[in-house]
Amino acid sequence: MTSQVTGPAPASAPPPQSEPPTTHRSLLAELTMPLVLAAFATYLLVGMLSMSVPESVDFPGPRFFPAVVTAVIYALVIVEVLSILRHRSAARAPEGHPTTSAGSSAPASPAVDDAAPSVDDPGYEFVGADEPATPRFSWRSFAWVVGGFLVFALLLEFLGWIIGAAVLFWCVARGFGSTRPLFSLVVGLTVSSLAYIAFDMALGLSLPSGLLGGGF
Amino acid sequence: METLSLLLDGFAGALTLQNLFWVVLGCFLGTAVGVMPGLGSSMAVALLLPVTFALDPTAAFIMFSGVYFGGLFGDSTMGILMNTPGQASAIASTFEGHKMALTGRAPQALATAAIGAFIGGFVASVVVVFFAPFLAEFSTQFGPAEFLALALFAFVATSSVVTDSAVKGLLSLALGLGIAVVGIDSVTGIPRFTMNSPYLFDGISLVTVTVAVLALGEVIYFATTARFQSQGRMLKAQGRPWLSRKELREATPAWLRGTAIGLPFGVVPAGGAEIPTFLAFGAERKLDRRRRDPQFGKGAIRGLAAPEAAGNATTGMAMGALLALGLPISATAAIMLAAFRQYGLQPGPLLFERAPDLVWALLASFFIAMIVLLIINLPFAMVWAKLLLIPRPYLYAGITVFCGLGIYATSGSTFDLLMLLGVGLVGFLMRMHDYSLAPLIIGMVLGPLAETSLRDALISADGDASVLVSGPIVVVLYGVLLIVLLLTLRSKVTSRTRRDV
Q1: Beta strands in B95-241 (DSSP E)
Q2: pLDDT score at B345
Q3: Cβ pair B193:A44 closer than 8 A
């Protein structure tokens, strides 16, 4: 399953080929899903080739169904990519739509964004090409939410549920543009403690006590 | 008469203090997620799935059905007040519902929606009680070929009927099927696609995937993109929250017609309540055109009543199909099917014999849920609308914490949390690029069934593929599938032309 876990990486990878820079970024973004799917199909293909199946197994063996699925994914990915390309060349004609700054009035203002918005934003512009307001994409929020969850996942057993979940809560709230860090922390600690009481103590699920548990 | 006594036993089981608590809790949760735009009953059921393993099965399913129905009661509230439907099944109700609110009839619109949902759900529950045992009896004749046909039916219908782009729907489905084949092969015992990692021998947990795709991916999507989209302004609903006799006379036939349209769709795996709600809306619209004083476009009460009734009628029947056939017609139902399996129960013909207590208590709880939902929705719709006051950052932060809680509590491993994040990112990308998520869940739930049925059928026929299309039930199933596909094609064309009228 690593192909899935690492799948989204191409979205942030530097553009490998030479194409006009203005259109390249959004093409790459548009192709993210087909790329992820193709990567997954390749993972299945490699798995099928390396699978050792004894001779005695009857015809529709363990490879049969995955082979059908893999073939279907490859075929549909090709269809999808072709339709994206056709759509783009059709849309290229009325070019001059604005590439950035469509939603600059949003809470996370571009001035605070640590990465240059001109590089980040146009990536997902195409999503609603026909909509009046072009959707904005905030890498900053993405980093807070995904990074927060990553930290939570890796440190949960060390920090314990109450602290770990409060950190996660705080990071996600931050990612949603919460501007009151201290208050968020208090709310986060309350939520995580209540969850601990309700699910660990009352319902009997096991949550790690971590740092706090060691002290007592 | 036997059915009635079984149902009475069911009521005895459902009316214990503990089970009543779970019904009410489920109804409250369902209404809450239904009301809030961006959250839906499938997300709520996915989030609850891991934590309910601490409960006994009856309590868990009673709560799930409360959530499922509650979502359909709540989803129209924001559609009416803000023109932002809480989930897809409320889109059809939003057209005329919001117009009613704009002309100062918001409370009546809310009441129409709540009563419509009640009538649709109640009639469907009655039908299910008398119909499901027969359906279960009938499905005992199913062999591998029939189950394969049923699964294929669900695959094609959910991935191409509901979604805008059939290619994307099918890709989503194929991804679900692909995820489902990871793990030890159930027929031969050979590990597949595991990279010899013991973490993957049991396959990728369905719980992890559903929570990742329906909850975590949604949170990332909302944080990065959706929260920048402008929201409508909420209208205040003031005045009498009941219907005059004239309004009742106007709405009643529409409620009944909507229910009639919604019922058959509960056993057709066409992705849940969206299609019937649109069909009901379209039918009312056509009838309206023939009247001397057409109401559509000015806030027609019928245009709201019919889709609401249709949506809940479909959901009620869907629960019947799930119990009797093991056939999920929507993402929410698919998750519930997965929940049954986690408890070692297989919905379908045997469930009625093996776990009659659970089945009948669950069916009885449908009626209780309907009444509870009517009580908490009819007079208090405006109170529910206050849920929008919860600050978005905290709401979504809470959801994320709950994702982590559920997954860690069921698996106890960091690996599953990382898997949750990885699949969540894929779910986020799918959301970003308008891939429908329901086919993925349905593919993952029904994929193993389809695969083993296919292989069993082929192996027992020595590889003769004609066995897959022989037998009356199979032929009928494929025939109905064809009809459904043609009907959708037609309704898609008409829905495109409907916009500009």
Answers
A1: 183-184, 191-192
A2: 85
A3: yes
**From the CB of residue A210, how many other CB atoms can be counted at a distance below 10 Å?**
17
Distances (CA, A) of B488 to B111, B160, B499: 31, 9, 17
Give the tokens for residue A39: 């990567």
Is there a contact between A172 and B224 (Cβ–Cβ < 8 Å)? no
Between residues 34 and 63 of chain A, which touch chain B (CB distance below 8 Å)?
Answer: 36-37, 40-41, 43-44, 47, 51-53, 57-62
How many helices and strands, by DSSP H and E, does chain B display?
A: 21, 2
Residue A1: predicted pLDDT: 35
Q: B228–A141: do the CB atoms touch at under 8 Å? A: no
Kindly state the tokens that stand for B144: 């591998």
With an 8 Å Cβ cutoff, are B433 and A153 in contact? no
Map B129-172 to HEC letters: HHHHHHHHHHHCCCCHHHHHHHHHHHHHHHHHHCCCCHHHHHHH
- Which range of residues forms the domain containing residue B54? 2-498
pTM attached to this predicted model? 0.81
- Chain-centroid distance, C-alpha B256: 21
Total tally of structural domains belonging to chain B: 1
B89-103 confidence digits (pLDDT tens): 788 888 888 888 888
List the single residue in B with minimal CA-CA distance to A204: B54
pLDDT at A151: 95
Contact B148, B460 (CB under 8 A): no
Q: Establish if A1 touches chain B: CB-CB under 8 angstroms.
A: yes
Q: Where are the domains of chain A?
A: 2-95, 140-215
Asked whether the beta carbons of residue A138 and residue B425 sit closer than 8 angstroms, the reply is no
Mutate to test the interface with A, among B221, B405, B451 (most CBs of A within 10 A): B405
Q: In this structure, what token pair is assigned to residue A46?
A: 């490699």
CB pair distance less than 8 Å for A176 and B402: no
The segments of chain A whose pLDDT lies below 70 read 1-25, 93-135, 213-216
- Give the minimum alpha-carbon distance from B491 to chain A in angstroms, rounded to a whole number: 23
Spans in chain B with pLDDT lower than 50: 499-501
Q: Which residues of chain A neighbour B175 with C-beta distances below 8 Å?
A: 37, 40, 73
